[in-house]
Automatic annotation (TrEMBL):
Residues 319-399 form the Reductase C-terminal domain. This is Pyridine nucleotide-disulfide oxidoreductase. One of its GO terms (cellular component) is cytoplasm. Its cofactor is FAD. Pfam families: Pyr_redox_2, Reductase_C. The keyword Oxidoreductase applies. One of its GO terms (molecular function) is oxidoreductase activity, acting on NAD(P)H. It comes from SAR86 cluster bacterium. Keywords: FAD, Flavoprotein, Oxidoreductase. Residues 4-300 form the FAD/NAD(P)-binding domain.
Amino acid sequence: MSDSCIIVGASHAGVSLALQLRREGWTAPIKLIGEESELPYHRPPLSKEHLAGKKDLDAMRLRPAKLYADNDIDLLLSTRVNSIDTAAREVQLQSGESLGYQKLALCTGASVREFNPARGLENVFYIRTAADIARLAPHVRKGRRALVIGGGYIGLEAAAVLAQQEVSVSVLEMAERILQRVTSPAMSDYMQRLHESHGVEVHSGVEVESIREEGQEKLICCADGTEFRADFLIVGIGVEANASLALNAGIETGAGIQVNEYCRTSDEHVYAAGDCTVHPSLIYQRSISLESVQNANDQARAAAANICGKEQVYNAVPWFWSDQYSIKLQMAGLNTDYDQVVMRGSAEGGIEASFALFYLKEGVLIAADCVARPKEFMVSKKLIKEGTKIAAEHLQNEEIEPISFVTA
Ligand SMILES: Cc1cc2nc3c(=O)[nH]c(=O)nc-3n(C[C@H](O)[C@H](O)[C@H](O)COP(=O)(O)OP(=O)(O)OC[C@H]3O[C@@H](n4cnc5c(N)ncnc54)[C@H](O)[C@@H]3O)c2cc1C
């Protein structure tokens, strides 16, 4: 057995974990293994500034190359781990080589869900990696027609970028409203109006049945008989955790790799962090999976501490952001199971709007969605963590400064 820590997946979680291991005092070798060829980069700009051509990959690096060397982290890019032998404590690489470990951390992230009607067709794009944007970017040209399948955050961010490049964009969403899985009707309504005011057509409750290629054009036929024509498609219908490596090694998995509050899997020498995990949330009293940079970084830091022998419970308030046109949406907590929504400010005015939606359950703040309301966002994170009861009148009252909610 080697004394190394091997980390599989060199993105937000893997990089944070590797660097935190050194801060926690891990002195043995660290191997950070990733199958992508690029030096690790920030993923969120892919559907924002990078797709818009405003930020190149070199400006998106998570850390400079030198930092890995300075911390004695052996970064192996373009390297895929094919399997794990937990009994021998070894991983097998695609190249056939085996590497031993003392501790293993799985930071394998998630992969896009494929859209069956579009399988095998040309000019159908997904947005998960820098390579995906390299393929898509040449098609983003004035006057072209794009169809975005899926009205979630990534599809809508892409729609916003395309609309600003004078691409004609339609968004097709199967659910009754865009962002249905992640936000309330009030926020969905605001986002729909925002997109429509920028010329994007939004169609909800639409199910694509088939897609035909007619020359360079695609004909999209929906179950209700509606048809759309487009030059290219962007699919954003969610992701699936990359859990097969763990599953095939006999490690417990569900909707992702199951970890406990210490980020440990069912194998005591194997930890996991980031999009690939399902973890217990003490705040929400249930198992959750998250797809956010905050979760990838914070969970990875907790995992690193625990690999180094600490007993650090991971119990962070989830938060997330999305940039569309010139608005920044910031979300704290998980807004499921709420019984009351309180609005502070006004959702009128498109890109000029400034408001927060607070989600309460039995009077306790469990989540907040904020547009141009950074103070409300910051305070909400604190209140959610503390499980604070707060009166709707206080939240609504613009004369009360958000900081006072903490003592209200
Ligand atoms: C377009 C886009 C926009 C986003 N915008 C936001 C945002 O605005 N705010 C926000 O909070 N979050 C956003 N996210 C989500 C955020 O990027 C993810 O939550 C984050 O990347 C998760 O990090 P991770 O390290 O867990 O996984 P990933 O970033 O998915 O990285 C996992 C890595 O592991 C590698 N890997 C997997 N299996 C193997 C293997 N067997 N061998 C070797 N390597 C392997 C993968 O190739 C990948 O590089 C966005 C995501 C995307 C795609």
